[in-house]
Amino acid sequence: MTDRLTDILISSFPQMLLAAIKMSIPLTVISFLLGMALALLLAIVQVADIKILKQISQIYIWIFRGTPLLVQLYIIFHGLPQLGIVLGAFPSAVIAFGMNVAAYNAEAIRAAILAVPTGQTEASYLIGLNYPQLMLRVVLPQAFPISFPSLFNNLISLLKDTSLASCITIPELLAKTQKIAGRTFDYLPMFCEAAVIYLMICTLLTWLQGFLEKKMAWETKKVRTGRHMRLKAGT
Q1: How many whole angstroms separate alpha carbon 107 and alpha carbon 104?
Q2: What pLDDT shows up at residue 233?
Q3: Residues 6+ apart with CB under 8 A from 206
Q4: How many Å apart are CA 123 and CA 56, to the nearest integer?
Q5: pTM to 2 decimals?
Q6: Looking at the predicted structure, is the pLDDT value of residue 228 above 50?
């Protein structure tokens, strides 16, 4: 019995890992990029304080943060065809995951933008920058390092959430695990092995997050030191 289970675990590991590499990770990356683009728009709209657009943005965030991701996935994949909008499983998952993570990323970006000192905004207007230039040259470069930990945490959470894609027949890691477990009837070992693979990937991402945070902190320190030296030389 032990030898049989060992053989199954060894033979299934590459299959499950391949499913994660070929489907779970690409689904995470594409969805997150879509979510980042939408989140940036939602955050800027709120900070700009354009009344109607701000209300629309807030309603969007309220809906997607207040309803389960699985329900959103089912609405897009199973519900939209009743309105004549038929999407494949992968595009449906990308849209659902991307729109969901956008709501969380938007709040992280908005908070980071508001953390940038208002004095810099006023000074930027005084030297003739318009609002888009202010955002691109002054505010967003400073807001990104502030929001980075929250954004990366959302990325890691999204990777785990992609397991829900198995509910709409996408052959990602959990779907592959269910298929193997259904054939061998070794449900506990298979799902534990899947958990180990998720843990491995998330651990690597956590390490990458820490590395990037340290690098950004070092770059920020160098920039601040350079500014201080230039100011000192000017005096």
Answers
A1: 5
A2: 53
A3: 156
A4: 30
A5: 0.89
A6: no
Cβ-count burial of 116 within 10 angstroms (0-12 exposed, 13-18 middle, 19+ buried)?
A: middle
Q: Which two tokens stand for residue 99?
A: 């729109």
The dihedral over CA atoms of 172, 184, 70, 68, expressed in degrees to the nearest 10, equals -120
The C-alpha atoms of residue 34 and residue 102 are separated, in whole angstroms, by: 8
Calpha distance 174→170 (Å, rounded): 9
Looking at residue 230, its pLDDT comes to 47
pLDDT band of 220, cuts 50, 70, 90: low
3.40.50.10090, 3.40.50.1110, 1.20.120.640, 1.10.3720.10: which CATH number matches 2-234? Answer: 1.10.3720.10
Q: How far is CA 152 from CA 74, 109, 208, 232, in A?
A: 26, 12, 10, 36
Instruction: Classify residue 89 by burial, with Cβ atoms within 10 Å: 0-12, 13-18, 19+.
Output: middle
Q: pLDDT of 184-201, one tens digit each?
A: 899 999 999 999 999 999
